[in-house]
From TrEMBL:
GO MF terms, alphabetically ordered: aminopeptidase activity
Keywords of this entry: Aminopeptidase, Hydrolase, Protease
Organism: Halosimplex pelagicum
Domain Peptidase M24: 190-402
Pfam family name, one: Peptidase_M24
Protein name as catalogued: Aminopeptidase P family protein
Length: 422
């Protein structure tokens, strides 16, 4: 395990002149340069980015979702950036984003807008108009005679671009952006450290508001309010209690009233800070836990740290995945499962960044036959679970790979289950 450097940790979310915090200009520049370096080494003349996280990675724009491809970005091999967006967003960006000097109106060629039109001719028109805009920009910047990488495999768009003489390639574009994003800069790591701290504020609010008779939805609402108070965005997460903790309830948070002796499972996933997403679990006991609950918690933590101890640069994901529970430890018989791929989300590690799931994935379902190498600077969440008398325990840590192992970014106490007195 990596020992954190002196004073390394969250330093606050406000801009100050008396210490260095997250440097957003540096983060934008370094992400852009990483993508451009990989584009320079590819046979592509440019990248058309439609995926929101890829757009944000290259442009720094706050991609908050939308109705489909009503925003997209072109990055050329010379480093030029053209961004298309909706009328309101484009007007806002021209004023507030001076690092981008070519922002245009988008034709929504993919997604909800063409689908809602109810007309195949309208869908063809919008895809064609989007292709026209991209082809015109490529000609302006002198890359229209080179292959264009596109990070989505939308057949209508690719056909429209092909009709305009643009050769498109999907796989190189997807691989290029995965490679650029798989290891994180120092500022990206600090964003993940900060979002972990915000989640911990949410955990604290749960301990203050959970009690017998409180509903899951009420307590989760208090936690979410705390997350927003710290400047986070909340794109997911939930709180379950008692029998809803095993298996995970299909509706996530419900109106169930908590009872003495319940386990509470808080899942802070997809909580964002400057776009960087959390995945951070903790389990609480409403009153003193039973022996079975303590044993389950101990098992989950031991399994978690057995995996963390194996993660370091140069190790492959198949070697690490061996530390996760086997089929017996997965309680596969209870699920009626015969193979690990049937047990998605139970025990694994997945990359974290501008998306909830990034490279790498460490999982017995794929890693033994499809291993990749761990690299310094990768960030990920590692999660384990265990049942306890019709309830369940789940724990998870957010980590960054250092040269000598992992640094744990999450800091809510994990050695023993947190007991909530009432």
């Amino acid at each position: 395990m990596h020992d954190r450097e002196y004073m390394a940790g969250t330093r606050g979310t406000m801009a100050v002149d008396w210490e260095e915090r997250i440097d957003v200009k540096r983060m934008r520049r370094e992400r852009y340069e990483r993508a451009l370096d990989r584009l320079d080494d590819s046979p592509l003349g440019g990248l058309l980015l439609v995926s929101d996280p890829n757009i944000r990675y290259v442009t720094g724009l706050a991609m908050t979702g939308g109705s489909g491809a009503d925003h997209y970005t072109l990055l050329t091999e010379a480093g030029d950036v053209v961004h298309w967006d909706t009328a309101d967003h484009a007007a806002n960006q021209r004023y507030n984003c001076p690092w981008l000097d070519d922002i245009r109106h988008a034709a929504p060629g993919l997604g909800n807008v063409p689908r809602a039109s109810g007309s195949d001719s309208a869908r063809a028109f919008l895809a064609g108009k989007m292709a026209d805009l991209v082809a015109e920009a490529m000609a302006e910047y002198g890359v229209d005679d080179l292959p264009l990488g596109v990070d989505v495999g939308a057949r209508r768009l690719h056909d429209a671009l092909d009709d305009r003489g643009i050769e498109t390639r999907v796989e190189p574009a997807v691989d290029l952006m995965h490679d650029a994003r798989k290891t994180k800069t120092r500022d990206e790591v600090e964003c993940l450290r900060q979002v972990a701290a915000v989640c911990e504020a949410g955990f604290q609010r749960i301990t203050e508001s959970a009690k017998p008779g409180a509903r899951e939805s009420e307590v989760w609402g208090e936690a979410v309010r705390e997350l927003y108070r710290h400047g986070a965005t909340v794109g997911g997460g939930y709180l379950t209690s008692g029998p809803n903790t095993w298996p995970k309830h299909q509706a996530n948070t419900t109106d169930r009233a908590m009872r003495p002796g319940d386990l509470l499972y808080a899942d802070f996933y997809n909580v964002g800070y400057l776009g960087y997403r959390s995945c951070y679990y903790r389990t609480f006991s409403l009153g003193e836990p039973t022996d079975a609950q303590r044993d389950a918690y101990e098992t989950a933590v031991e399994n978690l740290y057995r995996v963390l101890d194996r993660i370091e640069p140069g190790v492959t994901t198949d070697e690490i995945a061996e530390a996760f529970p086997d089929m017996a430890g997965e309680h596969a018989e209870w699920y009626g499962a015969d193979e690990h791929w049937e047990l998605t989300t139970n025990h694994w590690a997945h990359g974290l960044g501008l998306q909830l799931y990034e490279v790498p994935l460490i999982w017995r379902g794929v890693s033994p036959d499809h291993p990749i190498e761990i690299e310094e600077g990768m960030t990920m969440a590692v999660e384990t679970q265990a049942p306890a008398d019709r309830q369940g325990v789940r724990v998870e840590e957010m980590v960054v790979v250092r040269d000598d192992g992992v640094e744990v970014l999450s800091q809510w106490p994990v050695a023993e289950i947190t007991t909530i007195d009432y």
